[in-house]
Amino acid sequence: MRSCLCAQDRAAAATRAGGAERNAVGATSGPAASPACLRAALGNGDRGVRGAGGQGLGRSVRVGNDVVPATGARRGGAAPAGTGDSVSAAGGAGQQAGAVDPLFDDEFDEEFDVEPAGFPDPWEGVNRGVLGFNRRLDRWVLDPVTRGYRKIAPAPVRTAIRHFFDNIGSVPILANDILQLRPRCAGVTLARIVTNTTVGIGGLFDPARRWGLERHRADFGQTVARIGVGSGPYLVLPLLGPTTLRDGTATLVDAAFNPAFWVLGPAQQLTYGGGAGLAARDANFEALMALANSSIDYYAALRNGYYQSRIGQIEQRPSCGCPR
């Protein structure tokens, strides 16, 4: 037997249902109420309806398209015989006739059964296995290295190192600003590269930000997403972590835009990549630890967090003021 919701809960349920039809109850506007709920609200026709001295308050209740008098429907007089159960009787008659409360109708509920938001995840089993490998690698290698790095290097030094890698990583951002036909953003990125490389001593400092040139994010995954390329399935890659088929493939293009790809040899590229990864992990260390410690299902929490972050990166308006 379906339980009743209070008036506030029913209003919230109607709102979530996308504007479900509401009916008036008495003189106030509210969601449609089932007969069982009306009996509970009216105290089976007696409680909360009568005023002092047992006299009625002149209330009526709308059930569907019919107005049913509640107990004491005549103001100032005794309630007519049988009216104390008028709502109950109406409810019973409706139930016997096969009437169903629309808010609890199975067919009605099915109209609002939607898939949870997120990237498609047909390879969840494999992804969970890769995530398990990443977490073991993190526990035994990456986490101790990050903690040691944070203990040895003071915060200003770590910030300078992160700025250095961010400055080099601005070259792929510039390339994607151009591909996305965002000249204003491209101008801001170019100005940041020149300013931080010169005044910022090779990118160790970020004077461009103090001068109002904010850093924004642009990658090849965003570029192709803007022309309608779908995300594809959700992926968890070894070492790299969560991504999608589209964005994981686009990472290879962004790597080709990076000058380190053309200047450094294979061994130096590994060193560069490890340093950039360590700097990025240091910047997100507290957030990752909080997520891992507070999640019942870390896989689902990480997938949802990546989805929210990625959708925000693609849809948000860049800080340079360019349209989305």
Key attributes of the depicted protein:
324 residues, 2 domains, two-stranded antiparallel sheet, 15 helices, 6 strands
- How much β-strand is present in the residues? 5-15%
Strand order of the largest sheet: 1-2
CA radius of gyration is: 31 Å
What general form does the structure show?
globular
Helix count from the secondary structure assignment: 15
Largest sheet: 2 strands, antiparallel
Oligomer category: single chain
The computed structural class is mainly alpha
The level of helicity is 40-55%
Instruction: Provide mean pLDDT, rounded.
Output: 76
Helices and strands, in order, run as HEEHEEHHHHHHHHEEHHHHH
Number of strands: 6
> Between the first and last Cα atoms, what is the distance in angstroms?
50 Å
Summarize the structure.
The radius of gyration is 31 Å and the shape is globular. The protein has 15 helices and 6 strands.
Describe the structure.
This protein is mainly alpha-helical. The protein has 2 domains: 7-110, no CATH class; 124-315, no CATH class. It is built from 15 helices and 6 strands. The strands form 3 sheets. Strands 1-2 form a two-stranded antiparallel ribbon. Helix 6 packs across helix 13 (266-283) and helix 7 (170-179) crosses helix 11. The longest helix has 29 residues, at 124-152. It is globular, with a radius of gyration of 31 Å. Residues 1-65, 67-98 and 106-115 have low confidence and may be disordered.
Task: Describe the SSE topology.
Layout: H1 7-16, E1 24-25, E2 28-29, H2 35-42, E3 60-63, E4 66-69, H3 86-96, H4 106-110, H5 124-152, H6 155-168, H7 170-179, H8 183-198, H9 207-210, H10 220-226, E5 234-237, E6 241-244, H11 245-257, H12 259-263, H13 266-283, H14 285-294, H15 298-315
Antiparallel strand pairs: 1-2, 3-4, 5-6
Helix pairs in contact: 2-3, 6-13, 7-8, 7-11, 10-11
